[in-house]
Design brief:
Blueprint lengths: L8 E3 L2 E4 L4 E3 L7 E3 L12 E6 L1 H11 L4 E6 L6 E3 L2 E7 L7 E7 L2 E5 L21 E5 L12 H6 L7 E5 L5 H12 L4 E4 L4 H9 L8 E2 L2 H5 L4 E5 L1 H6 L6 E5 L22 H11 L3 E5 L4 H7 L4 E4 L2
Parallel strand pairs: 3-4, 4-5, 5-6, 10-11, 11-17, 12-15, 12-16, 13-14, 13-15, 17-18
Antiparallel strand pairs: 1-2, 2-3, 7-8, 8-9, 9-10
Length: about 325
C-alpha cells in the first residue's frame, strides 16, 4: 500500500490535495473547493467551484447570497464524483444538517477527512455514518483524555430547575436548532423564543424535513414576563446583553471558557470528545491517523507504535 504522506498539505489558503488540485474547507477563496459543512470557519465565500451537499449549499447561499460561489456542484451522500483523478464520496458526519466527511480514493488508498463530526444523537441532522479507510484525517478539537462531554439530555434538563427567563447563547447554525429540539423534548414547560437572525436558518431546516420543533420569534414584551421563556440568541447578541436584568444567562458550548456561570453550566458540544475519537478510530480501522484543528499530541502518545499519528497543524 502506497500511502502518500503529501496527499494533503497545509497551505496559506487551507488544506490542499495536489493529486486532485483542490482544497478542502479552504480559508480563502480558491478555484476548486470541497466544503464539508456550512459553518463559516469551513465555508468561506467567493470560491469558483464548490462541491458540497444540498444543505451546505443552501446555508452558504443564505449567508453569502450571490458571493456564495460561482458554481455549486451538489453531491448526495454515498454518491461518488471525481476531481482531477481523485474519487470523492461524501459520508454523513453528524455535526449539523448537511455535514459530510470527505472520503478520497487515490492510487488504491482511502483517505477520510472527517471535518467536524459528532457521535451524540441529534434529531436535527443526519446521523454519523461509518466507513473503513486507510488514513483518517480527524479534527482534534477536544482530543484530550481530560475532556469528556456529558449527556446532552441531562444538560438540557438543567433548564427545568431555572425559574427566571433564560437568555441562551448559541451559534445560530446547527447548535440553535439542536437546542430547540432538545428543549421541546426534555424541558417541555419552557417556551422557546429565537433571535430574528435564526429564523431563516430554521426555515431551511424545515424545508429539508428537519424541523427543530416549536418556537416563536423573540418579542420584548414576552421576555418582560416571567413565563418560562428561553430566548436563543447568537453570540454577538449574547455578548451585547452582558448586564441584562431578569434573566439567567447561559451559553451552550463544549468549551469551558464560554460558560458564563460557575453554578449553571450547559456543556453541549457538536464535536467529538476523547472517547468518541477513540471509538471512531476503532470503527474506521485506519493504518494512519492525521490530526487537524486541535492538539494531536495526546493521540500520538496514546497509540505509540500501534498506529502512526501525524499532526498536520
Amino acid at each position: 500500500m502506497n500511502i502518500k504522506e503529501d496527499f494533503l498539505t497545509i497551505t496559506p489558503k487551507g488544506l490542499y490535495c495536489k493529486y486532485g488540485d483542490f482544497y478542502i474547507d479552504p480559508a480563502e477563496p480558491v478555484t476548486m473547493a470541497v466544503i464539508s459543512h456550512a459553518h463559516a470557519d469551513h465555508a468561506v465565500s467567493g470560491n469558483e467551484n464548490v462541491y458540497c451537499t444540498e444543505a451546505t449549499a443552501a446555508f452558504m447561499q443564505l449567508r453569502y447570497a450571490k458571493n456564495a460561489a460561482k458554481v455549486f456542484n451538489i453531491a448526495a451522500y454515498h454518491t461518488p464524483f471525481t476531481i482531477g483523478g481523485v474519487k470523492i464520496t461524501f459520508i454523513s458526519a453528524g455535526h449539523m444538517l448537511g455535514s459530510a466527511q470527505v472520503l478520497m480514493e487515490y492510487d488504491g488508498v482511502q483517505y477520510l477527512y472527517t471535518g467536524d463530526y459528532k457521535l451524540q444523537p441529534d434529531e436535527t441532522c443526519e446521523p454519523i455514518d461509518w466507513i473503513k479507510a486507510d488514513v483518517l484525517i480527524t479534527e482534534s478539537t477536544f482530543a484530550d483524555p481530560a475532556i469528556l462531554h456529558p449527556d446532552p439530555v441531562e444538560e438540557i434538563k438543567k433548564l427545568n430547575d431555572i425559574r427566571l427567563n433564560i437568555m441562551l447563547g448559541a451559534y445560530g447554525l446547527g447548535k440553535s436548532q439542536r437546542l430547540i429540539r432538545l428543549i421541546n423534548q426534555h424541558a417541555p414547560e419552557k417556551k422557546v423564543l429565537v433571535h430574528h437572525r435564526i429564523m431563516p436558518i430554521n426555515a431551511v431546516y424545515e424545508k429539508m424535513g428537519y424541523s427543530p420543533g416549536k418556537y416563536e420569534l423573540y418579542s420584548r414584551k414576552l421576555m418582560k414576563e416571567q413565563g418560562g421563556y428561553v430566548y436563543i440568541v447568537p453570540p454577538f447578541t449574547f455578548d451585547s446583553y452582558i448586564n441584562a436584568k431578569g434573566v439567567k444567562r447561559l451559553f451552550a458550548s463544549g468549551w469551558k471558557n464560554l460558560q458564563v456561570n460557575q453554578n449553571d453550566t450547559l456543556y453541549i458540544s457538536d464535536h467529538v470528545d476523547w472517547n468518541d475519537i477513540l471509538q471512531s478510530i476503532e470503527r474506521i480501522g485506519p493504518k494512519q491517523v492525521w490530526t487537524l484543528h486541535g492538539n494531536g499530541a495526546h493521540l500520538k502518545k496514546h497509540f505509540g507504535d500501534d498506529i502512526f499519528v501525524k499532526i498536520l497543524n
